[in-house]
Design goal:
Radius of gyration: 22 Å
Protein name: Mitochondrial thiamine pyrophosphate carrier
Largest sheet: none
Subcellular location: Mitochondrion membrane
Organism: Acorus gramineus
Structural class: mainly alpha
Function: Mitochondrial transporter that mediates uptake of thiamine diphosphate (ThDP) into mitochondria.
Number of helices: 12
Helix content: 55-70%
Number of strands: 0
GO molecular function: thiamine pyrophosphate transmembrane transporter activity
Length: about 350
């Protein structure tokens, strides 16, 4: 009987995680596209950067509203969902693995498989469980994250028309290891990010429960431990904001590594394949020149070197490119994810009992 319930519990976590991740990702896709465009742009992303034009060419994107208008004018409404299919293929298995591993780790730590008992774990264990679950999910879904970044950042005219063409070109020119470009900074980022997100979410839930107890109405049919959907939404909103604000510089570095462009090999120079005028043909990942300077293959030796060079060339503001749409996206994304997961999980649990 116990073994049967463990299988049911795993199915609940996998399904609820996939549903919550899919809903959250689709709703927040426009902000994610804008965020990625900012992060892979070497030029400043604010309008006052005109003072630095002796160092940079004119920026393509200089603000959230300006980027929104440009993307809509050049690419239409569908441009805001560019790369959404590989993003869903990345996010849905990511959240499935994450919530499944998280529940298993909390079960081991608390000695109980009941979700209600997991809230009593120490904050330390909540942070560690979240970090480990995030690492496991990242390893299982990373190639889709890479392709999503490429498709979302390429703009118009397109270089890769489909997810398949991007996959094939990366594997052909870089090998299968090319599908894991930027994995190291991603893993370094995901440890504090997932730890903070799940750790602070549990902390905010405990605070909400304490507040419910202090204002408990005996006539109410709701128990103090039963949070409302609005309270869950606020807890997810706060946890997403906190995690993204702290970890955003690492996300910028990750996107730079994913978007790192390589020089043409001598053999490719002899290639007679026709190319569009003005199009930069590079090894693996391509980008049209109107979207700004390229990140060359030799630009960053490692993660620390990338952080150092970004600060040297672009200032500390370079580490926070895309922070506004990133936080605006992370807050509701976290909120929607947790609300959808909690309700989907409760519904599946009620019908599978």
């Amino acid at each position: 009987m116990e073994e049967t319930w463990k299988l049911k519990r795993a199915f609940i976590d996998l399904t609820a995680g996939a549903v919550s991740g899919g809903i959250s990702r689709t709703v927040t896709s426009p902000l994610d596209v804008i965020k990625i465009r900012f992060q892979v742009q070497l030029e400043p992303t604010f309008s006052r950067a005109s003072l630095q034009r002796e160092l940079y060419r004119q920026s393509k994107y200089t603000g959230v509203w300006q980027a929104t208008k440009d993307i809509f004018r050049e690419e239409g409404f569908r441009g805001f969902w560019r790369g959404n299919v590989p993003a869903l293929l990345m996010v849905m298995p990511y959240t499935s693995i994450q919530f499944t591993v998280l529940h298993k780790l909390k079960t081991l730590a608390s000695g109980s498989s009941k979700t209600a008992d997991h809230i009593n774990l120490s904050p330390y264990l909540s942070y560690v469980s979240g970090a480990l679950a995030g690492c496991a999910a990242t390893l299982g879904s990373y190639p889709f994250d890479l392709v999503r970044t490429i498709l979302a950042s390429q703009g118009e005219p397109k270089v890769y028309s489909t997810m398949r063409s991007a996959f094939v070109d990366i594997v052909k020119t870089r090998g299968f290891q090319g599908l894991y470009a930027g994995l190291s900074p991603t893993l370094v980022e995901i440890i504090p990010y997932a730890g903070l997100q799940f750790g602070t979410y549990d902390t905010f839930k405990r605070w909400a429960m304490e507040w419910n107890r202090s204002t408990f109405n005996r006539r109410s049919s709701r128990k103090p431990e039963d949070l409302t959907s609005f309270q869950i939404f606020l807890c997810g909103l706060a946890s997403g904001t906190a995690a993204k604000s702290v970890c955003h510089p690492l996300d910028v570095v990750k996107k730079r590594f994913q978007r790192k462009l390589q020089r043409l090999r001598k053999a490719e120079n002899k290639n007679t394949t026709k190319r569009s005028p003005g199009m930069i043909r590079i090894e693996g990942l391509q980008r049209h020149p109107k979207y700004g300077a390229r990140v060359e293959n030799s630009a960053y030796k490692n993660m620390y070197d990338a952080l150092r060079q970004i600060v040297r060339m672009e200032g500390y503001a370079g580490l926070y490119k895309g922070i506004v749409p990133s936080v605006i996206k992370a807050a509701p994304a976290g909120a929607v994810t947790f609300v959808a997961y909690e309700y989907t999980s409760d519904w599946l649990e009620s019908i599978l009992r």
